[in-house]
Amino acid sequence: MTSIADRVIIGYGSESGNARGLAQRLGAAPALQAFAPVVLPLNDVRHDELGNRDLLVIISSSFGDGEPPANAEDFMVRIQQTNDLSGLRHAIFGLGDTAYPSFCGFTKSLCAALAERHATAVINRVDADVTFEAFFDRWVPVLHRVLQGDEQAGRDLHLQVVAYDENSAFAAPVVERRQLNLDKPGAWHIRFDITGSGMAYRAGDNLYVVPENDTELLAAIAGWYNDPDVVDLLRRRELRQIGKSVLRELARLSGNDRLKDMLKISRKKELDGYLRGADVLDLLRDFCTPQSVESAALANLLPACLPRAYSIASVGGDFVDLCVREVIHERGGRMRRGTATGWLLGDSDSIRVFCRSNPGFHLPADSSAPLVLVGTGTGIAPLMGLLREVQADGKRRETCLIFGEKSSERDFLYRDELAALRADGVLTHLLPAFSRDGPEKYYVQHAIAQHGGQLHAMLEQGAHVYLCGNKQHLEQAVTQALDAIAMRNGVQGEGVEPGGEPLADVVPLSQVLMRSGRFHRELY
Length: 524
Ligand SMILES: Cc1cc2nc3c(=O)[nH]c(=O)nc-3n(C[C@H](O)[C@H](O)[C@H](O)COP(=O)(O)O)c2cc1C
Description:
Elements: E1 7-13, H1 18-28, E2 38-41, E3 54-61, H2 70-80, E4 89-95, H3 105-116, E5 120-121, E6 126-128, H4 132-147, H5 151-156, E7 170-179, E8 187-193, E9 206-210, H6 215-225, H7 230-234, H8 244-254, H9 257-262, H10 268-275, H11 280-287, H12 295-301, E10 308-311, E11 319-325, E12 328-331, E13 334-337, H13 339-344, E14 350-356, E15 371-376, H14 380-393, E16 399-405, H15 408-411, H16 415-423, E17 429-434, H17 444-450, H18 452-460, E18 464-469, H19 471-489, H20 509-515, E19 519-523
Helix pairs in contact: 6-11, 17-19, 18-19
This protein binds flavin mononucleotide (FMN).
The site of flavin mononucleotide has 22 residues, from helix 1.
């Protein structure tokens, strides 16, 4: 095989430095030195000066609404102003984030503009998500093989994260449903197979579930209308999270004075109380008649079933794990299940899902920073993901999991997995807080207080705190407990000398952690 180029020009488009960093690494890669690599911002690349023994490698992020970074804007304009680029050969590595609507929008447009002008891509375009490092490590050896003449290697490489969303979700087979506790409502471990989906995620990210409605609820609404076709009509409409605009329209169609009255601002509390746990069938029965709100009008009125977000409990790869609490309650003589949890825990073989990046809950870049992980109930989910990432990284750091539940015997979620992580040295401290095990209630804030010295030492070493669980119960209690251990041990925050008296304007530790990006919260 003979090499396809003598020279490699590496042009980068980068706002915050990721693409530039990769470009510089590529430029320094030993395998590329035979091709005299030159690294420069895309705006400085003169495509009209490239010869037919040059390969243009483009590494760029996307910004705004899928637009080029500032140092790639002029390059894009020059490409658009050129009619024929048939001599140009290129390889594009795009960096983006599926959290943005126009995922890798710039590099996709650039690739299309080059193709329209008959330029040749020697490797399939890469659309990388926040997990771009893993793609880069796979892409560089292929680039090297292509340069050496193995053009098929470039055609065989497919590194494109697909940006799924609620309108184009991936139907992921469910490969495991396992109850983790002994009581009702159940806490379930659910595993999806996402092989071949092009979906990429990392620990801390969220999975959105696009549910279908409970068949019993659909049948009951169809019964109310006395029309079986209503089941299909409403299968994918939102039947539980009912917005103000839907209520207003129902009040208008039904002409019901009670509903109109409840919509007045002065009665907001009453309306909120009524809506808690209510669904469309309640509204129909309580305020409407099948004649005043016809089923077609109702279907038109209701938005599509809203996707529900869940914290991912695994780390990258071909599977996504969730830890889900069953939602089940009775109201007005009727059992109700959560729309998404009902769908997840039903018997459906596959479920439509998509991932969204959640950078605020990723592991810190500093691989030596200790981790203090605090979670209650299914709030353990993303913490399991983070621990799995520590395990996969292979770089050991001090980690402490403070896990709160009711009973060690009945509710110790992931007991075996945690024991294995302990044995493996991934989880260095496990502090369970089972509220009903002893004569006194014992919650995570009590565990924080009891082990204050040890936690304080970790915080002094730059620990990051991750908190996940119920907003109402957890946030304030944990924040206060952290502030209290800092005060007791000599604050590492601002305004107090270690061991000294607090000043009047002392900044609590939780604030200091938050300001320095070391307090990560996922509360619901
Ligand atoms: C304000 C802002 C806007 C962004 N817009 C997009 C976007 O439209 N599409 C996309 O795929 N990624 C978008 N991203 C994600 C970046 O492309 C991603 O973080 C990339 O790794 C940054 O690389 P850089 O450091 O080389 O600029 C955006 C990021 C920020 C902070």
